Protein backbone atom coordinates (compact mmCIF):
# COMPACT_ATOMS: atom_id res chain seq x y z
CA UNK A 1 0.00 0.00 0.00
CA UNK A 2 1.44 3.39 -0.95
CA UNK A 3 1.47 5.82 1.93
CA UNK A 4 2.28 9.51 2.23
CA UNK A 5 2.98 10.40 5.87
CA UNK A 6 2.45 14.11 5.16
CA UNK A 7 -1.18 13.53 4.10
CA UNK A 8 -2.65 14.44 7.52
CA UNK A 9 -0.99 17.86 7.45
CA UNK A 10 -2.03 18.53 3.85
CA UNK A 11 -5.69 17.87 4.69
CA UNK A 12 -5.74 19.72 7.99
CA UNK A 13 -4.14 23.20 7.85
CA UNK A 14 -1.96 23.83 10.92
CA UNK A 15 -3.88 26.95 12.01
CA UNK A 16 -7.20 25.08 11.72
CA UNK A 17 -5.72 22.25 13.81
CA UNK A 18 -4.80 24.70 16.57
CA UNK A 19 -8.26 26.32 16.50
CA UNK A 20 -10.15 23.01 16.49
CA UNK A 21 -8.26 21.65 19.50
CA UNK A 22 -7.72 24.91 21.41
CA UNK A 23 -10.17 23.67 24.08
CA UNK A 24 -7.79 20.85 25.11
CA UNK A 25 -5.85 21.75 28.24
CA UNK A 26 -2.38 20.13 28.03
CA UNK A 27 -1.52 20.60 31.72
CA UNK A 28 -2.57 17.21 33.11
CA UNK A 29 -0.73 15.38 30.29
CA UNK A 30 2.35 17.55 30.73
CA UNK A 31 2.40 17.00 34.53
CA UNK A 32 2.36 13.24 33.93
CA UNK A 33 4.99 13.41 31.18
CA UNK A 34 7.38 15.47 33.33
CA UNK A 35 7.36 12.65 35.92
CA UNK A 36 7.68 9.86 33.35
CA UNK A 37 10.47 11.67 31.47
CA UNK A 38 12.69 11.54 34.55
CA UNK A 39 14.67 14.62 33.46
CA UNK A 40 14.48 13.88 29.72
CA UNK A 41 15.25 14.28 26.92
CA UNK A 42 11.96 13.55 25.12
CA UNK A 43 11.37 12.78 21.44
CA UNK A 44 7.79 13.32 20.27
CA UNK A 45 6.67 11.35 17.22
CA UNK A 46 4.15 13.43 15.20
CA UNK A 47 5.01 16.54 17.21
CA UNK A 48 2.56 18.66 15.19
CA UNK A 49 2.28 22.31 16.21
CA UNK A 50 3.76 21.69 19.66
CA UNK A 51 0.54 21.40 21.69
CA UNK A 52 2.33 19.17 24.26
CA UNK A 53 5.96 19.71 23.27
CA UNK A 54 6.09 23.45 24.01
CA UNK A 55 4.65 23.28 27.54
CA UNK A 56 6.92 20.29 28.21
CA UNK A 57 9.94 22.33 27.08
CA UNK A 58 8.88 25.20 29.35
CA UNK A 59 8.87 22.75 32.27
CA UNK A 60 12.60 22.24 31.70
CA UNK A 61 12.54 19.05 29.59
CA UNK A 62 14.59 19.06 26.37
CA UNK A 63 12.33 18.04 23.46
CA UNK A 64 13.02 16.93 19.89
CA UNK A 65 10.46 15.73 17.38
CA UNK A 66 9.64 13.95 14.15
CA UNK A 67 6.97 15.42 11.90
CA UNK A 68 5.95 14.54 8.35
CA UNK A 69 4.06 17.77 7.65
CA UNK A 70 6.24 20.79 6.82
CA UNK A 71 3.23 23.04 7.53
CA UNK A 72 2.72 21.68 11.06
CA UNK A 73 6.45 21.94 11.82
CA UNK A 74 6.58 25.51 10.44
CA UNK A 75 3.73 26.56 12.72
CA UNK A 76 5.51 25.08 15.73
CA UNK A 77 8.67 27.03 14.80
CA UNK A 78 6.70 30.33 14.65
CA UNK A 79 5.53 30.00 18.25
CA UNK A 80 7.46 31.35 21.26
CA UNK A 81 10.27 28.86 22.13
CA UNK A 82 9.52 26.91 18.91
CA UNK A 83 13.07 27.56 17.73
CA UNK A 84 14.38 25.60 20.76
CA UNK A 85 12.90 22.33 19.42
CA UNK A 86 14.75 20.42 16.69
CA UNK A 87 12.20 18.81 14.40
CA UNK A 88 13.29 16.12 11.92
CA UNK A 89 11.16 15.87 8.82
CA UNK A 90 9.96 12.35 8.03
CA UNK A 91 7.82 9.35 8.89
CA UNK A 92 8.08 8.37 12.56
CA UNK A 93 7.88 4.68 11.61
CA UNK A 94 11.40 4.94 10.17
CA UNK A 95 13.05 8.35 10.75
CA UNK A 96 15.90 8.27 13.29
CA UNK A 97 16.70 11.30 15.43
CA UNK A 98 20.32 11.32 16.69
CA UNK A 99 20.74 10.68 20.40
CA UNK A 100 19.23 8.56 23.16
CA UNK A 101 15.99 9.58 24.82
CA UNK A 102 14.44 9.01 28.24
CA UNK A 103 10.96 9.07 26.72
CA UNK A 104 9.36 8.81 23.29
CA UNK A 105 5.85 10.24 23.09
CA UNK A 106 3.15 9.31 20.56
CA UNK A 107 0.05 11.22 21.66
CA UNK A 108 -3.48 11.91 20.51
CA UNK A 109 -4.21 8.65 18.63
CA UNK A 110 -1.40 9.30 16.15
CA UNK A 111 -0.24 5.63 16.14
CA UNK A 112 -3.43 5.01 14.12
CA UNK A 113 -2.29 7.43 11.39
CA UNK A 114 0.02 4.65 10.19
CA UNK A 115 -2.08 2.74 7.67
CA UNK A 116 -1.29 -0.90 8.47
CA UNK A 117 -0.02 -3.26 11.14
CA UNK A 118 3.45 -3.62 9.61
CA UNK A 119 4.10 0.13 9.82
CA UNK A 120 2.75 0.27 13.37
CA UNK A 121 5.13 -2.52 14.40
CA UNK A 122 7.95 -0.61 12.67
CA UNK A 123 6.97 2.46 14.70
CA UNK A 124 7.28 0.54 17.99
CA UNK A 125 10.70 -0.71 16.89
CA UNK A 126 11.74 2.81 15.94
CA UNK A 127 10.58 4.11 19.33
CA UNK A 128 12.61 1.40 21.08
CA UNK A 129 15.67 2.34 19.00
CA UNK A 130 15.43 5.92 20.31
CA UNK A 131 15.28 4.91 24.00
CA UNK A 132 18.10 4.63 26.47
CA UNK A 133 17.98 1.52 28.71
CA UNK A 134 15.00 1.94 31.08
CA UNK A 135 13.47 4.60 28.78
CA UNK A 136 9.73 4.84 28.20
CA UNK A 137 7.46 4.88 25.15
CA UNK A 138 4.14 6.59 25.96
CA UNK A 139 1.18 5.98 23.66
CA UNK A 140 -2.17 7.79 23.96
CA UNK A 141 -5.00 6.33 21.88
CA UNK A 142 -8.70 5.60 21.82
CA UNK A 143 -10.14 2.15 22.36
CA UNK A 144 -11.96 0.90 19.23
CA UNK A 145 -15.73 0.89 19.75
CA UNK A 146 -17.47 -0.87 16.81
CA UNK A 147 -20.70 -0.89 18.86
CA UNK A 148 -20.97 2.88 18.35
CA UNK A 149 -21.52 2.32 14.60
CA UNK A 150 -24.81 1.56 12.84
CA UNK A 151 -24.55 0.04 9.37
CA UNK A 152 -20.87 0.98 9.46
CA UNK A 153 -21.40 4.71 10.09
CA UNK A 154 -21.41 6.99 13.15
CA UNK A 155 -21.81 10.67 13.93
CA UNK A 156 -20.79 11.94 17.35
CA UNK A 157 -20.36 15.30 19.03
CA UNK A 158 -16.84 15.79 20.39
CA UNK A 159 -17.42 19.25 21.84
CA UNK A 160 -20.50 21.45 21.99
CA UNK A 161 -19.85 25.01 23.19
CA UNK A 162 -21.55 28.37 22.64
CA UNK A 163 -18.86 29.55 20.21
CA UNK A 164 -18.13 26.26 18.41
CA UNK A 165 -19.26 22.70 17.78
CA UNK A 166 -16.91 19.86 16.84
CA UNK A 167 -18.52 16.74 15.35
CA UNK A 168 -17.01 13.58 13.91
CA UNK A 169 -18.53 11.61 11.04
CA UNK A 170 -16.99 8.16 10.64
CA UNK A 171 -17.12 5.02 8.53
CA UNK A 172 -15.85 1.72 9.89
CA UNK A 173 -14.07 -0.91 7.76
CA UNK A 174 -13.74 -3.79 10.25
CA UNK A 175 -12.14 -6.29 7.86
CA UNK A 176 -9.02 -4.12 7.73
CA UNK A 177 -9.43 -2.43 11.13
CA UNK A 178 -9.69 0.93 9.39
CA UNK A 179 -11.83 3.94 10.16
CA UNK A 180 -12.25 6.89 7.84
CA UNK A 181 -13.30 10.09 9.59
CA UNK A 182 -14.06 13.71 8.91
CA UNK A 183 -14.24 16.08 11.84
CA UNK A 184 -16.61 18.99 11.27
CA UNK A 185 -15.67 22.25 13.00
CA UNK A 186 -18.61 24.68 13.10
CA UNK A 187 -18.34 28.28 14.30
CA UNK A 188 -19.58 31.75 13.33
CA UNK A 189 -16.50 31.96 11.05
CA UNK A 190 -17.82 29.05 8.98
CA UNK A 191 -17.37 25.32 8.55
CA UNK A 192 -14.05 23.47 8.32
CA UNK A 193 -13.71 19.80 7.42
CA UNK A 194 -10.80 17.88 8.92
CA UNK A 195 -10.42 14.44 7.31
CA UNK A 196 -8.22 11.73 8.84
CA UNK A 197 -7.85 7.99 8.26
CA UNK A 198 -7.01 5.51 10.99
CA UNK A 199 -5.81 1.92 11.13
CA UNK A 200 -7.09 1.17 14.60
CA UNK A 201 -5.90 -1.46 17.07
CA UNK A 202 -7.09 -2.64 20.45
CA UNK A 203 -4.76 -2.11 23.40
CA UNK A 204 -3.82 -5.81 23.47
CA UNK A 205 -2.52 -5.62 19.89
CA UNK A 206 -0.44 -2.57 20.78
CA UNK A 207 0.99 -4.52 23.76
CA UNK A 208 2.05 -7.29 21.38
CA UNK A 209 3.69 -4.76 19.04
CA UNK A 210 5.60 -3.44 22.04
CA UNK A 211 6.80 -6.94 22.97
CA UNK A 212 8.00 -7.47 19.38
CA UNK A 213 10.05 -4.32 19.82
CA UNK A 214 11.51 -5.42 23.19
CA UNK A 215 9.30 -3.09 25.25
CA UNK A 216 7.20 -4.16 28.22
CA UNK A 217 4.04 -2.56 29.55
CA UNK A 218 4.59 -0.60 32.76
CA UNK A 219 1.24 1.24 33.10
CA UNK A 220 -2.11 1.55 31.42
CA UNK A 221 -4.42 4.34 32.53
CA UNK A 222 -7.75 5.62 31.20
CA UNK A 223 -6.36 9.15 30.90
CA UNK A 224 -3.40 11.36 31.72
CA UNK A 225 -4.56 11.83 35.33
CA UNK A 226 -3.86 8.14 35.97
CA UNK A 227 -7.52 7.06 36.34
CA UNK A 228 -7.97 3.27 36.35
CA UNK A 229 -8.41 1.64 32.93
CA UNK A 230 -11.72 -0.28 33.08
CA UNK A 231 -14.31 -2.05 30.92
CA UNK A 232 -15.84 1.38 30.20
CA UNK A 233 -12.65 3.21 29.24
CA UNK A 234 -12.81 4.76 25.78
CA UNK A 235 -9.19 5.98 25.75
CA UNK A 236 -5.91 4.82 27.18
CA UNK A 237 -2.53 6.19 28.07
CA UNK A 238 -0.06 3.32 28.04
CA UNK A 239 3.56 3.39 29.17
CA UNK A 240 5.97 0.84 27.71
CA UNK A 241 9.47 0.46 29.04
CA UNK A 242 12.77 -0.71 27.62
CA UNK A 243 14.66 -3.08 29.94
CA UNK A 244 17.48 -1.57 32.00
CA UNK A 245 20.01 -3.98 30.60
CA UNK A 246 18.69 -4.02 27.04
C1 LIG B 1 -3.28 14.30 15.72
S1 LIG B 1 -1.88 15.27 15.32
C2 LIG B 1 -1.06 15.28 16.91
C3 LIG B 1 -0.07 16.43 17.03
C4 LIG B 1 0.53 16.57 18.44
N1 LIG B 1 1.24 15.37 18.83
C5 LIG B 1 -0.58 16.84 19.46
O1 LIG B 1 -0.75 16.03 20.37
O2 LIG B 1 -1.26 17.86 19.30
C6 LIG B 1 -0.88 14.13 14.39
C7 LIG B 1 0.43 14.73 13.89
O3 LIG B 1 1.26 13.67 13.45
C8 LIG B 1 1.75 13.95 12.14
N2 LIG B 1 1.91 12.65 11.48
C9 LIG B 1 0.92 11.77 11.13
N3 LIG B 1 1.47 10.65 10.62
C10 LIG B 1 2.82 10.82 10.65
C11 LIG B 1 3.92 10.00 10.30
N4 LIG B 1 3.75 8.76 9.80
N5 LIG B 1 5.18 10.48 10.50
C12 LIG B 1 5.37 11.71 11.03
N6 LIG B 1 4.36 12.55 11.39
C13 LIG B 1 3.10 12.09 11.21
C14 LIG B 1 0.68 14.84 11.51
O4 LIG B 1 1.21 15.61 10.45
C15 LIG B 1 0.24 15.67 12.71
O5 LIG B 1 1.05 16.81 12.88
Automatic annotation (TrEMBL):
Cited SUPFAM superfamilies: S-adenosyl-L-methionine-dependent methyltransferases
Its GO biological process annotations read:
methylation
The answer to whether UniProt assigns keyword Membrane to this entry is no
- Occurrences of domain Methyltransferase (ranges): 42-135
Pfam families xrefs: Methyltransf_25
Q: Which organism is it from?
A: Micromonospora coxensis
Q: Which InterPro entries match?
A: Methyltransf_25, SAM-dependent_MTases_sf
Q: Name one GO molecular function term.
A: methyltransferase activity
Could you tell me the superkingdom of the organism this chain comes from? Bacteria
From the Swiss-Prot or TrEMBL record, give the protein name: Methyltransferase domain-containing protein
Q: Which UniProt keywords apply?
A: Methyltransferase, Transferase
Output the CDD domains linked to this UniProt entry. Answer: AdoMet_MTases
Amino acid sequence: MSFDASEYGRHIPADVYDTAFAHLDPDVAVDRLVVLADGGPVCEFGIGTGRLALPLLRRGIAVAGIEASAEMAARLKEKPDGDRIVVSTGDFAETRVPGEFALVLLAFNTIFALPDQARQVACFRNAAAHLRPGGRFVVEAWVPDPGAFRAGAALRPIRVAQEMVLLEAAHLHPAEQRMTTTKIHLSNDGVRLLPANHRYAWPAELDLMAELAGLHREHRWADWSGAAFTDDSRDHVTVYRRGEGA
